[in-house]
Amino acid sequence: MREHLLVLLIAAVFVYLLTPYARTLALKSGAVAKVRDRDVHTEVTARWGGIAIWLSIMLTILISSQLNLLSKAFQQDEQIKGICIAATVICLLGVLDDKWGIDAITKLAGQTLAAAILVNFGVQLLWLPLNGVTMLPTSLGQLITILIIVVTINAVNFIDGLDGLASGIVAIAAGCFFAFAYLLSVVYNFDRAGAPSLLTAIMMGACLGFLPHNFYPAKIFMGDSGSMLLGLLLGVAAITLTGQIDANAIASQNFAPTLVPLLLPFAVLAIPSIDLLLAVIRRTRAGRSPFAPDMGHLHHRLLARGHSQRSATVMMYLWTLVVAAPVSASAFISWRINLLLSLSLALPILLLSLRPKYVTNIAKSRR
């Protein structure tokens, strides 16, 4: 745990220190988000926060490979190399999109290329919990892997609509991933969960280090260079956690049904995934491209109910936590206790979501 906390802190410090330089570079290069009718920001804001996130993650991976315990996670050298290459490709694609704009088909092709690079380096789903444990044919496993990676990339990209929203949600998602992976690897000796616990610890640190620059009012946006990068890495964490742990060993333990590791990636991305699905349905029914931007996202609806940008962002954080944490915890605690805790959290958060004035009153009372 000490080394995981160390790399988390290192990633956070790197991002925090490098982000102002990324902001300066973006402003000089014209990689900025101008104010449009559908936007909620009111000033021209630099993009390319993803450059600082990418560089920090790469540096932290390099440092962690030299640490005594975490160096064991690098036994799969080809996978680590593939993750770094794919992360670089997706970040570069985002950098170009943030500066000049890329059409949806080209962007999708680039996302698929990055996912294919991961598959080529051995990051692949190997089994599914169907009729016990079903080993997947290589070609089918590769196809499902690419699909999962592309979906998570776009899910995170779609949620990046409020200051600090994507970075906060990814930090929460990475935290839930880390808790589950760490318990598997340390408490229950599933050593192959070491890589996803390392990756999610680094991601959590990177997001926390970026938040001070990105929370409302944001000085810089992560842009597609950051949101697509984080989406890809979350997809990688899902594949390495669910597909490369011994499923039969998991099933033999009383603490976790085999289905839990597979559900966890979808749970931690439930909010952005729901938002993505609703956006596709909404735009398709209106006769528009599913990639066409609009103001119907969940965070837009919270704003329409009277939430401020800060409170809407916090509400999205809380809903992500309410959905993700119970799934992560269900492998280790009784379902009755888990249900009770979930309801005790969900009900007040639902009230706060529907009645934004309560959030405002709470904020005023703490001043």
Profile the largest sheet.
2 strands, antiparallel
Strand percentage lies at under 5%
Cα-atom Rg, whole angstroms?
20 Å
* Overall geometry: globular
The percent range for helix content is: over 70%
For the largest sheet, list the strands in their spatial order. Answer: 1-2
Mean pLDDT: 82
Order of helices and strands: HEEHHHEEHHHHHHHHHHH
Number of domains: 1
End-to-end CA span:
36 Å
Give the uncertain stretches in residue-range form. 362-367
- The DSSP helix count reads 15
The overall strand count is 4
Structural class: mainly alpha
List keywords for this structure.
367 residues; mainly alpha; two-stranded antiparallel sheet; two-stranded antiparallel ribbon; 71% helix; 2% strand; globular; disordered C terminus
Topology:
Blueprint: H1 2-29, E1 32-33, E2 45-46, H2 49-64, H3 77-100, H4 104-120, E3 127-128, E4 134-135, H5 138-159, H6 165-187, H7 194-214, H8 223-243, H9 247-252, H10 259-268, H11 270-285, H12 298-304, H13 309-329, H14 335-354, H15 356-365
Helix pairs in contact: 1-2, 1-7, 2-3, 2-7, 2-8, 3-4, 3-8, 4-5, 5-8, 5-11, 6-7, 6-8, 6-10, 6-13, 7-8, 8-10, 10-13, 12-13, 13-14, 14-15
Written overview of the protein:
By secondary structure, the protein is mainly alpha-helical. The chain has one domain. Helix content is 71%, strand content 2%. It contains 15 helices and 4 strands. The strands form 2 sheets. Strands 1-2 form a two-stranded antiparallel sheet. Strands 3-4 form a two-stranded antiparallel ribbon. The protein is globular, with a radius of gyration of 20 Å. 49% of the residues are buried.
